[in-house]
Design goal:
Elements: E1 4-8, H1 12-24, E2 28-32, H2 35-44, E3 49-53, H3 61-70, E4 79-83, H4 88-96, E5 101-104, H5 109-121
Parallel strand pairs: 1-2, 1-3, 3-4, 4-5
Length: 131
């Protein structure tokens, strides 16, 4: 069965690049370009995994993660954070929200894909953060 991945990212080039590569690996990609759209899409059709940018319009990814983890509809969905920020406190906060991993941009797609696969196979497993 095809797994649904929600990519939440305000940079359309990153969304497009991730979509093409994830589609090529057999995943179905949904895209959201801001926090409000992310919450809406996740609630309408809970994905199997979320790739979530931290800094974006309409609220940040940490707030989105808090909202999704608080809902019984989406609390089980693994989240992998993506960010351009080098702030250690963001990294710690993301992991405290139950993120399975944390990638700083630019990230290695091979590493991200391996983490996506692992998170989908073992949704309750917390993976080591990348950096």
């Amino acid at each position: 069965m095809e797994k649904n991945i929600l990519v939440v990212e305000d940079d359309e080039r990153i969304v497009k690049a991730l979509s093409v590569r994830l589609n090529a690996k057999g995943y179905h990609v949904l895209a959201a370009y801001d926090a409000i759209m992310a919450i809406q899409k996740a609630m309408e059709q809970p994905p199997d995994l979320i790739l979530l940018d931290i800094t974006m319009p309409g609220g940040n990814g940490l707030t989105v993660a808090e909202r999704l983890k608080a809902s019984t509809k989406t609390s089980h969905v693994p989240i992998i954070f993506l960010t351009a920020s080098k702030e250690a406190s963001l990294h710690e906060r993301a992991l405290s929200l139950g993120a399975v991993a944390f990638f700083e941009k630019p990230f290695d797609f091979g590493e991200l894909l391996a983490t996506v696969r692992a998170a989908l196979e073992h949704p309750n497993m917390s993976l080591s953060a990348q950096g």
